[in-house]
């Protein structure tokens, strides 16, 4: 297999394992530690609740980002098509998965371009990895032209640069050179014509890292915290199938590594940028809590992948239920819109509270 075929195979493995294997962080995100306060006398009609929100200059009908997941092989095209149709129908934002596969093999671009075909008006976010912005042992850094072509490929409204060093650490063939990534992100943020989102993928952001990312010129932070899909678990399973025992073990040991999503959201707010709460958002109630903590959007990956593999109706049902739950919680807190939800009091208990106290957030 050449390099591009390997990437294609890896992407297919990720999809299959994430959809069907036991790959969630065992610790959970800790949403049960965050409680909102019931309002017995809400002065708002449930049907009048406004879920709309502005994000990086775009108006969305609801604060949900279909998190970047896939592309680069045939099944990925179908998943992307189903999810893009949902983004278009509901006025949501959507990300694609890492576009490196198509930058190396142009015949795979159709697995990403389908997203703009199916969602001509939705906010779309292109995706490249920070490790690909520096020279790795087996691959040179992406050029400016390649970065720009990832954006052009889907006529993206923003570019996510993912930070996935936990995944790269566990992946047997992972790319572990990180020195120079910060400068490279600063450079990318300077020359691309769209806002750059710095995006963790399941290990979370600390307050200090969030503030450094702001200094680099990124315009939003997707915290990708611990609590949902664990890429240590996913890569550990791949390593097990390949018989690479040290990586398999590393995946088990680091399955819960990182900063839980609610803690990451509160930490990242200090940077003063819009924050996307991704990582273990599994209901409209989780979402309401994240939004009350200060997130501008919530991102959802694995549940929407599982639904997308079943088709349009399953995605429609998932999003419908999610919005019903979010709207209901907003009603029960007397929040007419997301600004009001954000201003609601909340109670933080348990492990999440300990994290916040000990980090002095
Ligand atoms: C199958 C799969 C593939 C993913 N691929 C990417 C990717 O290529 N780039 C990226 O930035 N994030 C990727 N992610 C990470 C998600 O965007 C998200 O941060 C993470 O899955 C946590 O969200 P969840 O708990 O709702 O799944 C992927 C997630 C899944 C499930």
Descriptive overview:
The chain has 361 residues and is an alpha/beta fold. The chain has a single domain (3-359), classed as TIM Barrel. Helix content is 47%, strand content 13%. It has 16 helices and twelve strands. The protein has helices spanning 3-20, 74-90, 100-104, 110-118, 144-153, 165-170, 181-191, 207-215, 231-242, 245-253, 261-269, 284-293, 302-310, 312-332, 338-342, 350-359; strands spanning 34-36, 53-55, 58-60, 64-66, 93-95, 123-129, 158-163, 196-200, 220-222, 275-278, 297-300, 346-348. It has an eight-stranded parallel beta barrel with strand order 4-5-6-7-8-9-10-11, surrounded by seven helices. A two-stranded antiparallel ribbon has the order 1-12. Strand 2 (53-55) and strand 3 (58-60) form a beta hairpin. Helix 1 (3-20) packs across helix 13 and helix 12 packs across helix 14. The chain is globular and about 65 Å long. The relative contact order is 0.17. Bound molecules: flavin mononucleotide.
CATH C-level category = Alpha Beta
Q: Point out poorly predicted stretches.
A: none
Bound compounds, each kind once, are: flavin mononucleotide
Q: Could you name the CATH homologous superfamily?
A: Aldolase class I
Major β-sheet strand ordering: 4-5-6-7-8-9-10-11
CATH level-3 fold name = TIM Barrel
């Amino acid at each position: 297999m050449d390099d591009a075929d390997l990437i294609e195979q890896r992407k297919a493995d990720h999809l299959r394992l994430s959809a069907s294997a036991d790959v969630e962080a065992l610790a959970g995100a800790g949403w049960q530690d965050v409680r909102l306060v019931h309002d017995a006398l809400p002065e708002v009609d449930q049907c009048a609740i406004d879920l709309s929100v502005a994000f990086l200059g775009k108006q969305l009908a609801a604060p949900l980002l279909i998190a970047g997941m896939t592309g680069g092989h045939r099944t990925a095209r179908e998943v992307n098509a189903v999810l893009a149709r949902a983004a278009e129908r509901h006025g949501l934002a959507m990300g694609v998965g890492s576009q490196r596969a198509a930058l190396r093999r142009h015949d795979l671009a159709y697995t990403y371009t389908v997203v703009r075909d199916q969602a001509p008006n939705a906010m779309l976010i292109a995706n490249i990895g920070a490790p690909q912005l520096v020279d790795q042992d087996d691959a040179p850094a992406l050029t400016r032209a390649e970065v720009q072509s990832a954006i052009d490929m889907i006529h993206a409204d923003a570019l996510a640069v993912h930070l996935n060093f936990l995944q790269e650490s566990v992946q047997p063939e992972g790319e572990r050179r990180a020195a120079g990534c910060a400068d490279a992100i600063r450079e990318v943020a300077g020359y691309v014509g769209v806002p750059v989102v710095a995006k963790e993928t399941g290990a979370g952001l600390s307050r200090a890292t969030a503030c450094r990312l702001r200094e680099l010129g990124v315009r939003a932070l997707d915290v990708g915290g611990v609590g949902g899909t664990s890429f240590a678990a996913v890569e550990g399973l791949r390593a097990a199938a390949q018989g690479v025992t040290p990586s398999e073990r590393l995946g088990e040991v680091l399955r819960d590594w990182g900063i839980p999503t609610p803690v990451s959201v509160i930490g990242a707010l200090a940077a003063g940028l819009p924050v996307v709460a991704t990582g273990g958002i599994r209901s409209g109630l989780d979402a309401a809590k994240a939004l009350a903590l200060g997130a501008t959007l919530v991102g959802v990956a694995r549940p929407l992948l599982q639904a997308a593999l079943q088709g349009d109706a399953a995605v429609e049902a998932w999003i419908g239920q999610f919005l019903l739950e979010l709207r209901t919680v907003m009603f029960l807190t007397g929040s007419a819109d997301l600004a009001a939800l954000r201003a609601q009091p909340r109670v933080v208990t348990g492990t999440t509270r300990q994290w916040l106290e000990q980090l002095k957030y």
